[in-house]
Amino acid sequence: MKVAKFGGSSVANAEQLRKVANIISDDKERKVIVVSAPGKRFSEDIKVTDLLINMGEAYLSDQPYEDKLEIVLNRFKEITTELELSTDVIDEIKLGVERIFASDQSDELKMDAIKATGEDSLAKVLSAYLQSIGMDAVYLNPKEAGIFVSDTPGSAQILDESYDKLYELRNRNEIVVIPGFFGYTKDGKLITFSRGGSDITGSIVAAGVKADLYENFTDVDSVYCVNPNIVKNPREITSLTYKEMRELSYAGFSVFHDEALIPAFKADIPVCIKNTNNPQAMGTIIVSKKEPQPNPVVGIASDTGFVSIYVSKYLMNRELGFGRKLLTILEDEGISFEHTPSGIDDISIIVRASKMPKEKEERVIARIKEELHPDTVHVDRDLALIMVVGEGMDSTIGLADKATHAFAKANVNLEMINQGSSEVSMMFGIKASRVEEAVRSLYDMFFCDK
Amino acid sequence: MKVAKFGGSSVANAEQLRKVANIISDDKERKVIVVSAPGKRFSEDIKVTDLLINMGEAYLSDQPYEDKLEIVLNRFKEITTELELSTDVIDEIKLGVERIFASDQSDELKMDAIKATGEDSLAKVLSAYLQSIGMDAVYLNPKEAGIFVSDTPGSAQILDESYDKLYELRNRNEIVVIPGFFGYTKDGKLITFSRGGSDITGSIVAAGVKADLYENFTDVDSVYCVNPNIVKNPREITSLTYKEMRELSYAGFSVFHDEALIPAFKADIPVCIKNTNNPQAMGTIIVSKKEPQPNPVVGIASDTGFVSIYVSKYLMNRELGFGRKLLTILEDEGISFEHTPSGIDDISIIVRASKMPKEKEERVIARIKEELHPDTVHVDRDLALIMVVGEGMDSTIGLADKATHAFAKANVNLEMINQGSSEVSMMFGIKASRVEEAVRSLYDMFFCDK
Q1: Which end of chain B is more exposed for a tag (fewer CB within 10 A), N or C?
Q2: A283 and A322 assigned to the same domain
Q3: Which of B245, B388, B417 has the highest number of chain A CBs within 10 A, making it the mutation to test binding with A?
Q4: CA distance B68 to B81
Q5: Inter-chain residue contact A417 with B407, CB threshold 8 Å
Q6: Is B151:B114 a contact under the CB 8 Å cutoff?
Q7: Is the confidence metric ipTM above 0.85 for this complex?
Q8: Residue A352's CATH number
Q9: What is the pLDDT of residues B95-141, one digit of tens each?
């Protein structure tokens, strides 16, 4: 049994939904379908969920919302017209929205229900369409499916008992279409997952039904081994482990929402990235373990936007608690640190620039000076991190040699090397202006035949 | 003006003291001499200070001490006899000890005074000897010299006002011989520095008189660029910076007590390591800055006895405070950590094995599991650290390449690479069993002409 989830771009309009229908009919094992709300049809377009949020905020601040509702309805009308479906579903959407507004729930809960309307409606539209072309498919509301969550609007947590209930879906013969992004509390309140939550639904459902495979249909053929904006036509990754995926997505590969995969990961369900627009392509499969590969490196990720805080003090390593006090200062400011390469008398803290705007930086530096009395402290705002990732990393002699050689060939100075904790990656810090040359050189070293 | 300090082995017996006298007379600038207590004359010998401690402990626990005192006196008698000096100084030593015992000070202060007897007596013997061979030399007690310290027996801290008083030594014509290791509180109590404190005295005096050079006479020609037990006849280091010295001494090069150099460092006094037994050898000079060298690497230090605690948890980097809580657990157990290479979902804490005996390790692991709920935690007790050190490190492209290549050539797997915080070193972690091969390969790479 396979669970197939279709993301926003895959269900953005009628043309896409036709592809979705073909994909479902192509494989009898695709029995459980999870869908997002319609995404962008073209790059300047607005996602349906954003339109809904906009409408909801207008209503809740006592401003006119009717024309915003109309825009949403038109998005669905476009689809139902082209797919020659009845307009019943459009009326349902309108009624549903008005019922939500009229209900006596809190504003928070009303907002969650409004946000979920896009997924819910698209699921109804899709199942209507599948029926119209003769497939045995039904819409299934998350409450009926068994997606029970905590009472935390906007950041639902799945309750353990859901998984047993979801397993019962295996007993059904027909194809079920479940809207992603939301679940219900035991007492019937609609609660959404955090943004990007259709991925979470898909993962939860795949874990619940103990799927053989969870297919995540998106708009790329596969995960590439390097950013295709830096290296043209890079190699595709056939398979990667969860650990490798985490390391790569850390520094730039964001195929989907990180936390979304946890349920599938825990239940050991393989995940496959597929392209709705090219479903025949193999895609990239994500597994918990894989056989050792000839090439120990699976990918190279890179990201700019890192900052380094450098602190030095003679005999720093004799001061018990120095490192901990330094981290506490950052924690007080809500800054999660990324890494802390340290020397004998010095330490650098690597943080994401977005976590430390100028005024926070000033406070942090002032506290460091006042509380720790360092010899020097300075901030370097110009840092990029490059991760060389692969399960073969920890047992392959000479990988660090090759990687550092690639940087030397590109004449790039290494500001930082951090390797050893992770068994699947090596991390390098360089000046942000040199990222492209460095990545190309690494690609050449690890992915091109000599 | 030069300050020359002579360590234990340099003043162990009459033969050594003759060499000391020659060294002093060889250079008119050597006006201020600091001495240790007589050290070992041969490898199974006992240092005079240890004999004194032994004697002091016997007395303070009401046990017979007289024969222990006799042994101490004989050590000095041996010297005075061979150097044909009067035995007055022996009587002085005996009287001094008995006066200390009879005084109404605390046991703690009595012990400090006993401990200091070795340096104090040797300074008197040396100045008597210098006078006997016609040199214009005097013994100078630290109180007269101006070495004023805090009232903290066994771990004196120099008071700032000492420096101005010490500066007055420049006005003297004669050579002054000052015993190392102790000073006096403003109200006249004798307080010792921590062990190895003659180095501290020398450094303080050199800073106080604003010496042109502080010569530290010991029993090696120079600091070598690598452990001579691993590489035979290694290159000698001509000059190193304070930073480089700190990095090297971290992982094995311990020519002298680290903290000892702080006063000289702060006053920007160059320090020269010299060999009493071969004073013509250039020695190694330690400075605060030096010109860029053709070889950016100055030395390779290595040390076994490190332990790594590895902790991993999916989405660890999202948990604000995870790293800080981990460090707090170690701090509660009094374990100072050395380094924390971290990945995305994992972190390793490198500590010295001596800081974490088995029962502490068990407590730490138990707390980590209980408080942090990691996916995995394990300890690797087999780790060695190798530091490649040199001021040229941070601006030389390709150094990491060469270093990692040296490891690959020796077929040594790199467990850890930590570079970036320190601007003068790169740190590598490997299995302790491979240290010698790795160090030889690095030596070959960085110090042998091709």
Answers
A1: C
A2: no
A3: B417
A4: 20
A5: no
A6: no
A7: no
A8: 3.30.2130.10
A9: 999 999 999 999 999 999 999 999 999 999 999 999 999 999 999 99
Residues contacting A195, CB < 8 A, separation 6+: A257
Could you say which DSSP state residue A156 is in? -
> Whole-angstrom Cα distance, residue A71 to residue A105?
25
- In tens, the pLDDT along B335-358 reads 887 788 777 788 888 898 988 998
Give domain status of residue A294, yes or no: no
Looking at the fold, whether B279 and B312 belong to one and the same domain comes out as no
Q: Both B311 and B268 in a single domain? A: no
Do A279 and A393 sit in the same domain of this protein?
A: no
Nearest to A346 by CA among A380, A375, A367, A381: A375
Residue matched to tokens 């995960």: A223
In a domain, B293, yes or no: no
Please tell me whether residues B306 and B267 are part of one structural domain: no
Mean predicted lDDT score pLDDT of chain A: 91
Q: Does A418 touch chain B (CB under 8 A)?
A: yes
Tell me which of A234, A263, A287 is where a domain ends.
Answer: A287
Residues 290-319 of A with CB under 8 A from B: 310, 314-315, 317-318
Distance from CA of A335 to the nearest CA of B (A): 8
Distance from C-alpha of B341 to C-alpha of B323, rounded to nearest angstrom:
11
B292 inside domain:
no
pLDDT band at A55 (very low <50, low <70, confident <90, very high): very high
> Are residues B411 and A422, on separate chains, in Cβ contact within 8 Å?
no
Cβ-based contacts of B407 with chain A (< 8 Å):
397, 400-401
Same domain, B161 and B309: no
* pTM, two decimal places: 0.79
Q: Are residues A356 and A260 in the same domain?
A: no
Q: Please name the residue ranges forming H helices in A268-398.
A: 322-332, 358-372
Give the tens place of pLDDT for each residue, B129-158.
999 999 999 999 999 999 999 998 888 889
Amino acid at A318: R
Q: How many domains would you assign to chain A?
A: 2
Distance CA B430, CA B384 (A): 5
Residue B192 belongs to a domain: yes
Q: Domain span at residue A118?
A: 2-287
Least confident of A252-256, B9-13, B289-293: A252-256
Residues A250 and A304 in one domain: no
What local confidence, expressed as pLDDT, does residue A370 receive? 96
Q: Does A320 touch chain B (CB under 8 A)?
A: yes
Last residue of a domain, one of B264, B287, B310: B287
